[in-house]
Structure formats: C-alpha cells, structure tokens
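Risk mitigation, structural track. In case the binding assays with 2-phosphoglycolic acid fail to produce interpretable data, a predicted complex structure has been prepared as a fallback.
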Amino acid sequence: MRRPVFAANWKLNIGPSVAREYMAAFLAACEPRPDRSLAFFPPALTLAAMRDLLSPRPDVLLGVQNISVEEKGAFTGENSAPIARDAGAGLVLVGHSERRRLFGETDEETAAKCAIALHHRLIPILCVGETLHEREAGRTEEVVGRQLSVGVGRLGLDEVACVLVAYEPVWAIGTGRNATPADASHIHGVIRQTLTDRIGARGREITILYGGSVTRHNAGPLLAARDVDGLLVGGASLEPDGWAEICNT
Ligand code: PGA
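Fallback model:
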C-alpha cells in the first residue's frame, strides 16, 4: 500500500530564522500520523537548522533540492550527495524543471544524479514534465517517457524500485493552472506502466507525486485520482498553516 507523501519544495525561500517560526506553527498543526509521509526541501543553507528543528519529529523527512554530479573536489559552489547525507538529508529532488530550464540540466545529468544519490543512500525524487509547447504538440507522453527512461537508465532494478517520481507539467508550475485530476491520473498511469515494464510488479509500489499549482482547494481531488500518491508543492507550502491544511487533507 503506497502512503501519501506531502513534499514541500521551498525553492529559494525561507532561511534558518524564518524556518524556526514556520516549523513552530506547522508542527503544532500537523501531528505525526502513520498514514502519510511529510517531507521538506529547504534551501541547502537552511538544512542544518531544519534538522535541529525536526529532531523531536522523526516522522518528517528532509531533502535537498539538487546535488552535483560530482562527489567531491574543486567544484566551487556545488553541494554533493555525501555532504547532503551527512547534513541530514534523506531525499533529493533531481531534474526539477527549474534546474532543467534555468540551469541547463540534461536527462543524462539527471541519470548521473539519481545514481550518485542512491550510492550515498539519498532517495531521489525524479521530476519529469512537459512544457506547454510540448503539450500542445501532443508530445506529453513521449517527453515524460524519455525523461523517465533516461533518468533511471543507469540504475539497477533494485535501485529503480527505491526511486520516487514527480510528474510536474512545466506549464502548471507557479502559474495557478494545475493539471486536472483526470489528466494527472492519465500521465501517472503512463509513468507507472513504464516503471512496471522495467522492473515488474515492484513498479506498482513506486510513489508518484503530482506537482504544479497545488492549492488547498485542488489537493483533495488530485490526491483522490488513481495513481496520484502524493503532492510536491512550491508556493502553497510557504505558509505553515495553509501547508498543514493540505497535509491534513
Ligand atoms: P508550485 O511549484 O506548487 O508553486 O506550482 C511546484 C514545484 O515547482 O515543485
């Protein structure tokens, strides 16, 4: 049974002191529950503060928003998988559309990042999704299928079974225009089929999140859709009470 995952992607928002106020409010409104998983992806410089704030709440997971394809060395400004792990992260976002679009991340780099993450016991959430242009050209399944297949392409079957996938249509991110539950469900089904083709029945256990303009109004219907196992949320996760309300959906 897949349990719903509620993941907050703070992007380049919320430093350590604001995180302190935020978590006080959020944790009071969001009790530990066995039927869901909670995760935060703060900026890397906020990670240490978050680890301390969450020490009484081991049910809440922490992740980083990106890692380098390099393990260590002369790569000024980068964060590595082993350092993220050492700093308290258990998860990492790989191939978020902002990394792809603004920083030129390629499918091959997402493959390298998934492999290096798992090597250092970080669970990757591989983000996939089509642009508006690709959607209008009827290429959604082709684009998502390619991002997924290449992204997990360097992993062994046991490793693929550890990955989470987030379907985030680029046209829905931060735009106020979410995929309908039916559309999300359809693409999640395609993603699941690709995974089961690759690793068999274990593909049915893989958690597939939806992301893109999730709000407290659409969270319930999206989560109720078949094959939507959780939510990856940017804007609506920046305010603790609203985010707690979504996590309590
Ligand atoms: P949004 O962002 O919820 O603000 O649309 C989602 C994401 O980028 O992960």
